[in-house]
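Team,

Forwarding the record for the chain on the shared tracking sheet. I've put the sequence and predicted structure together so nobody has to dig through attachments.
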Amino acid sequence: MQRKVFVAGATGYLGGHLIPVLLQREHEVYALARPGSEQKAPSGSVVIQGDALNETTYSKQIPSGCTFVHLIGVPHPSPAKAELFRQIDLPAVQASVAAAVSAKVEHFVYLSVAHPAPVMKAYVAMRIAAEDTIRRAGLNATFLRPWYVLGPGHRWAYALLPMYWIFKRLPATRETAMRLDLVRLNEMIAALVEAVENPCNGIRIVDAQQIQHVRI
């Protein structure tokens, strides 16, 4: 079924890979881009100018009843960026939720993060707070919880794969290693597409193990 899909974070790393796939599958995609970045939106999408931190700049341009995909976040997160998570990640979700409620969207797809986790505490805390914001708004929502997405420009974590192989086979570390498993870019995009095409009622959580096995 063809859907109208509004993507916040359309000009970012995942948005740039997701939108062409959605368009190939004949969905109508609306791409949020700040003024001056319109040319970065994937060709074929309907570009919506707006400030991701201020829902009043774009909420009236969201198609009623659409699927809202939120991909906004500080790039290359690290413990040193804790303040940026508070300034950007959570406010962006709060703006998206307000806009989604105003537009009466059918389904909200949120790129969260695997938790609990022993590291990146500020980042994880902001993503948990964002999930709570979405729950309180009463939106039907899918939370995708990868830990790290391997792909072009995000290859350093490949060096960790042998460690993951070991940890997943040790009883003491198996559950944590599987929850915080690494996913590949094509798996992440497939999981996002699957979430768009299969809206849920209530809240659905898709963890790293599920992301790795989605097929579209």
